[in-house]
Amino acid sequence: MAVAIEAERLVKKFGQHVVLDELSFTVDEGTVLGVLGPNGAGKTTAVKAVTGLCALDSGSARILGHSVSKESNVVKQLTGFSGQYAAVDEDLTTMENLVLVGRLYGHTKSDAQRRAHELVEAFDMGSYARKRVAQHSGGMRRRVDLACALVGTPKVLVLDEPTTGLDPSSRVSLWQMIQGLVGDGMTLLLTTQYLEEADVLADQILVMSKGRQVAHGAPEDLKGRLGGEQVVVELASTEADTARAAKVVEGILAGTGAQIATQDGQLSFRVPDASRWLASCVSALTADGISIGGLSVKAPTLDDVFFALTGDSMEPTEPDAQLAFITGGS
Ligand SMILES: Nc1ncnc2c1ncn2[C@@H]1O[C@H](COP(=O)(O)OP(=O)(O)OP(=O)(O)O)[C@@H](O)[C@H]1O
Description:
It comes from Janibacter indicus. The chain is of the alpha/beta class.
């Protein structure tokens, strides 16, 4: 598979602050790389650098083999970018925005109008076509913004936090649009603070912290690095039982490498293929006269991975951040 985006040892400093620290990654054609990391990790700077929107101190980037610094005109034709804040003109209608972008790409008026109509139809924006963007909801603005990024029919699309601030249903509908584009062969580089978003959209995930890569892999591989699912056993009774129960479970899991953590009336441990061990743990505990009040098995989330890798939480601070954790693999 050909490489569509290539970033090699990117370094960017703002004064003394090293924002990108020898960051390298590639994105294969037709695939999605999700760049994940907390506020200030350097995600926006990284994606701006590979689209030529941010000059580097050192390192190089190429889009479909073309140097971002030396062949910027070719790169502009090949790449669509949608930034964190919708860049559309609020005083213009959806159509006017799309036609304006087309004209900026050098399209004739009739070609720009034809492309604008195509995008309005593709993104189901018919009833908003003649409305000023100022009257649009946040979700519809992001949709217009995404459509603007596609006016030049790019082969590579870069989206910086495309759904931040959107309500759950707008977020899901934007995901569906993005999935449609990828289904049609688009290469996508996406930044997000939402673990669920990366999980849903990305083939590969790059986890960043302080301008560096802290992990890279398929969502399932990253989750697999934690050593399996987390099993929590709630005991029906006392503190004394907890230590005894831990000993019993330790005996069952001997040789698996699982570490058993205890709290009053609760044991928890991670073990690959948890279902294989559950029945024997439960029978051994019951045989020892220990009653079980509850049992749960939780698949690792990307947040767990991030915490394990950096000792830091990925959890964003926005009020709607909960969304990322409701279905995030748990
Ligand atoms: N133009 C600038 N001048 C000075 N510092 C900057 C500039 N742009 C970004 N930074 C700093 O670089 C660091 C990384 O910023 P960046 O926007 O790339 O992070 P991010 O991971 O995208 O964060 P967020 O999720 O908040 O958007 C931050 O500490 C930011 O304050």
